[in-house]
Amino acid sequence: MTPIETALAFVDAINRQHIDKLVGLMTPDHRFTDSLGKVIPGRRHMRDAWLGYFAIVPDYNIVVAETYADQSRVVVIGTASGTYSRDGELRLENRWVIPAAWRAVVDGDRVAEWNAFVDHEPLREAMRRAAAGSR
Question: Rounded to the nearest 10 degrees, how much is the dihedral formed by the CA atoms of 14, 64, 118, 17?
């Protein structure tokens, strides 16, 4: 696969919430960096992180508008969307769609680094609303 194909396969695994495929597309020393600069190292930790994220945003989806590659580096530009679910129920007021970008460093046919540039304030706001409503 080309680096762009690998990055798009990674996005597809995210969109399908196919954990085994997603982890299989990671190098053993994979590093995820979120938009706040927090780094999660390693496939094992990322498996748990993705499972946790999909539990609170069960319909998380990336729509790719553009991709750019420079050898092993790939930039994906598009939108991220999802619905915060505190209790397994998807409520319209907790749905968000935001512009986003991701940067992948591809090693062979696996992703060594995945950097997310996403403003998760709409998700945090939905979480705050849900927490305030439960009091």
Answer: -10
